[in-house]
Amino acid sequence: IDDLAEVDYSLNSLPAVFRQFIDLDLKGIVYPAGNYTGSPYVAAPFTIPDQSDSMLYLAFSEYFFQTSSFAYYTAGAFNITIAEETCSYFNISTEIFGSIIPEVAKYSVTPYPVMLKLMATEIPTISLEQDSFTVEIQGSMEVFAVLPDSTTQSLFTMNIVTNTSLALNIFDQKLVGSLCLNRLQFSLAHSNVGYFEISLLENILSYILQAEVIPSANGK
């Protein structure tokens, strides 16, 4: 698939050949690249609705997406660093955080660039629903001040829970995805600047995360 994941697919049974159609029962498993460890999930059987008005039908089970999530989580694909060097729009400093959180202003009097490190703390959960599927990710985000000598100083760490729905449609012979952020929840896990109300940060962090995730998703 890419540098992080590989897919193994094979027939579960002999192809069923009928007068008007052929059934191919394939089992697809996604693995971390070069690491064919067993999946923690169990494949459940499913059937395709009996229709005959199209030439080709493809069905992907929840198991396929679950193993994909496991593979990319194991490969570290959900660990993201957001910094000024990697994101042209990202220009946030401790001064901006300090204007919202007085504790940051007291801890870091001199303005420094800010770096965010995000990581999934559990395997993302993928659930198939009617005409769409949802992805729930539990993770953490650590906020660093980038000092003049390029070292970093941790300011605080937050827990994050996000729930996103993706609906797929075919429009003008193209597969188009519609992404909807259902829930984005923060809680303070650890702070080197002292306790503060996490609600002070929710608006700015929601903007940062949506700006980082949504454009790349729409681009695909």
UniProtKB/TrEMBL annotation:
Claim: DNA damage is one of the keywords in the record: no
Gene Ontology molecular functions: lipid binding
Record's keyword terms, sorted: Antibiotic, Antimicrobial, Disulfide bond, Glycoprotein, Immunity, Innate immunity, Secreted, Signal
Gene3D superfamilies: Bactericidal permeability-increasing protein, domain 2
UniProt xrefs under SMART domains: BPI2
GO process terms (BP): defense response to Gram-negative bacterium; innate immune response
Keyword Disulfide bond in annotation: yes
InterPro entries linked to this entry: Bactericidal_perm-incr_a/b_dom (IPR017943), BPI/LBP/Plunc (IPR032942), Lipid-bd_serum_glycop_C (IPR001124)
Lipid-binding serum glycoprotein C-terminal domain: residues covered: 50-217
Main subcellular location: secreted
One term under GO cellular component: extracellular space
SUPFAM superfamilies reported in the protein's UniProt record: Bactericidal permeability-increasing protein, BPI
Membrane spanning stretches: none
Subcellular location: Secreted
Its job: The cytotoxic action of BPI is limited to many species of Gram-negative bacteria; this specificity may be explained by a strong affinity of the very basic N-terminal half for the negatively charged lipopolysaccharides that are unique to the Gram-negative bacterial outer envelope.
Domain remark text: The N-terminal region may be exposed to the interior of the granule, whereas the C-terminal portion may be embedded in the membrane. During phagocytosis and degranulation, proteases may be released and activated and cleave BPI at the junction of the N- and C-terminal portions of the molecule, providing controlled release of the N-terminal antibacterial fragment when bacteria are ingested.
Subunit structure: Monomer. Homodimer; disulfide-linked.
Protein name (record): Bactericidal permeability-increasing protein
